[in-house]
Structures are given as C-alpha cells and as structure tokens.
Amino acid sequence: MSSLKTIKIDELVPGMYVNEIIEQSGAIKIKSQGRVTRLEVVDTLRKRGVKRLTIDLDKQFTPEQPAEIVAETAPVDVAILEQEETVSFSKELVRAENIHKKGKRIQKRLLEAVQNGLPFDDKIPREFSQSLVSSIHRNPDALLCLTKIREKDDYLLEHSLNVAILLANFGKFIGMSAKEVEDLAYAGFLHDMGKIRIPDEILHKPGRLTNMEMNVMKDHVYFGVTVLEEMNIAPHLIRTVSEHHERLDGYGYPNGSRGEQISRAGRMLAIADVYDALTADRCYKAGMSSQKALQILLGETPDKLDKELVQLFIKCMGIYPVGSLVKLSNDRIAMVVQQTQSPLAPVVKAFYSLRGGHFLEPKDFDLSSGTELKIERAVLAKDYKINFNAYFEKIIAT
Ligand SMILES: [Fe+2]
User: Fold this and answer.
1) CA pair distance 326, 310, nearest whole angstrom
2) How close is the Cα of 99 to the center of ligand 1, in Å?
3) What's the mean pLDDT in 188-204?
4) Structure confidence by residue, pLDDT tens digits, 276-331
5) 388-397 and 89-115 are packed helices; what angle lies between their axes, rounded to 10 degrees?
C-alpha cells in the first residue's frame, strides 16, 4: 500500500517528509524532497507559493525541540533547497525582457503610491524581486544586458531596477545564500523610492547641487525609510536601504555611520548604486563607460567604499561587462553578451560596421575560442551616434 498522501500546505507540520511538490505558483522551483524539521521550512515553502504536496508517511519522524537544536543537529536534512536550471542566453533573454518591463511598471506604481501617500501591496515587489533573482540564476547575462537599455526620462524607474539586477548578480557571485540574495535584490529595488518626494528642479538639476539643495536631496533616504516602516517591511531590509549613502569614513548620510556600523548589504548597495548612477545616460549627460565607472569605484576605496567588496564587484562585472559596447579589431562594434574564462575575450555580438557606417546582421563571436579577432577598446554608443536602444530591441526580437 502506498505510503504517500497528498496534503495542502496548511496541513504540513514539522516531522513530515515531503515527497513531491504538486502545486506551486511563482517562478522559483523548489527541491521537492526533504524532511521538514522546523516551522520555518513550512513558512518558506508557503512564501514560495507551494500549495499542495505529497508526504511520505513511512518517513515521518519526531522533530527535536527546541528548534535551534534541530537546526544545529540536522543541517543536511533541513534543507528544502532552491534548484534553478541554467539556460542559454538567447532563451533567457526573452523572459528577461518581460521581467525588465514588468519591473519598470511595478516601480512606477510604487513611486506613484509613495508620491500620493498611498499604501501599496509589498507582496508585488517582493515576488518581483524573487523572479528577478530566478532569472539571474538561470542566466545572469540576459538581465545584465538589459540594464544597458536606458530611456533618458525613466532614470528613477530604471535605476532601482538596475541596482536590483546588479545586486542579485553580485550577491550570487560572492556566494551569499539564496535568501540573502533575494533580500539584497529587494532592498535594491526599494532603495530610492523616497526620491519621488524630492522637488523635480532638484532631482533633475543638471550639474552640482548647492549645499541647500543637497540637504533637501538627502531627505530622500528619510522619506524612503519612513514609507518602508509604514509598510512593515522587515527591519533588516530597511536598514540596508537606510545605509546606501553612508560611507565608511563617516562622511555619508543620513546618520554619518562609519566602518563596521554599516552592514555588508548596505555597503554592497552603495557600490551598485554608484556604479549604475555613473553609467546611466541622463537627460543632461551621457553615462560613462563601465571601465571608467569601475575605476572611480576603486578610487573611492578604502575611505568611502569597502575595498574588498569593490574588488569583488569588479571581478563580478568583468573587464568588459555584459551589455557594454566594444570596438573589435575588424572595425566592427559589438556588444558583450557573455563572460568567458578569459576576462579579455568575452562572447560578443557584432552589429555595426564602422567602415561601412551601417548596421549588420548581428553575429556572435566567442573571442576566447582562438580567433584572431580581438577587442580594441570599450566604446559608447554616443561616440558613433548609434541609436543603440532601438537596435538592441531589434536584436532581442531576432
Ligand atoms: Fe539614493
């Protein structure tokens, strides 16, 4: 006689053995077998959208108490782990494009809610951040490429989305746990919401802000944190958001926290925030190249930014970050689409002939595969007056 029984998530309790997940919403797939040793495991499954599952009655066991001891004594069994299958760049790109568009829509709605002092359902951005992290797990290069599509007037929407993408990739790269990566990406997605309450003439002012204007600008952290507190967002996430302008030497804001007072997540958010701000095209200035931005980040260490983390960030982004443009030795412009083992020789998509001054049928080249073709240097689309956004959209569509 079968010892399997199908139950609803609400019936799951510690001591049961999960044989299979039968019904689950959301994109994050869960390893479907394992012992449920603690209530937190049930909560995690519920949060990941598990609705129905089968349990194996033969494998039921008595969970030890208290829960902390169980966690210590059964480290292998407690794990009902995420499992993400990796997919090709082109396969993920289609999905990533939808995630990217959805992220902008959600960000827009959040900002409108904050602007009008209305509540919003935090489940929506939370679940969105999870789907973003899932895409990074399947193939990080797809969403990373999309961070390069920028609409000059959408800076606020795109900035927070991009920072979330950069952080998901960064967190994964340095080996953070799945939960930490999700939290980090979520904090990135929420980090600048307070900016919507800053007057436009200050928020979009070209050039340097006066001291008085800067003081107004600094309030965006306070506004953002206040909103998140009203929404009952978890305190550790609020802390990360509150620290994104703090600097190790104590000259950041709003609290002038220094050194160890600033959490690792806060330091990582600060790095991703500066990097995206420097590389973004704004209505009054073109973004700088990734190389230049990474150099500037390094220049901010060790006084302002965490040196070790900046070095890891540079390693994670690569010398030629995915999505950036390069000039090849055959006078073609290409976009970096994938890192390889060789940092100077990524996979690129050539799409523009400088000699002919026209677009080409896009073609991929793996520069690490022994080809003569080399990268001469990193370039910016504006240097060649290329409508990069329009063409990039076309590349995605093909
Ligand atoms: Fe900010």
Assistant:
1) 23
2) 23
3) 94
4) 999 987 766 778 888 899 999 999 999 999 999 999 999 999 889 998 889 999 99
5) 130
Ligand 1 centroid – CA 148 distance (Å): 20
Q: What is the share, in percent, of the chain residues with pLDDT greater than 90? A: 53
Tokens of 122: 């935090």
Average pLDDT for residues 332-361, to the nearest whole number? 89
Q: Which helix (H) or strand (E) segment is 351 a member of?
A: strand 347-353
Burial 215-234 (b: 16+ CB within 10 A, else e): eebbbbbebbbebbeebebe
Task: Give the CATH H-level superfamily of domain 89-317.
Answer: Hypothetical protein af1432 (1.10.3210.10)
Q: 42 C-alpha vs ligand 1 centroid, how far in Å? A: 36
Q: How far apart are the first and last CA of the chain?
A: 53
| Single-letter amino acid code for the residue at 320 | Y
Q: How far apart are CA 71 and CA 64, in angstroms?
A: 9
Taking 90 as the threshold, does the pLDDT of residue 365 lie above it?
A: yes
Ligand 1 centre and the CA of 116: distance in Å? 20
All structural domains of the chain with their residue ranges: 4-65, 89-317, 325-397
| pLDDT at 158 exceeding the cut of 90 | yes
Q: What's the 391 CA to ligand 1 centre distance in angstroms?
A: 31
Centre of ligand 1 to C-alpha 273, Å, is 7
pTM above 0.70, yes or no: yes
* 289 token code pair: 């190249």
What share of residues in the chain are helix, strand, coil (percent, to 5)? 50, 15, 35
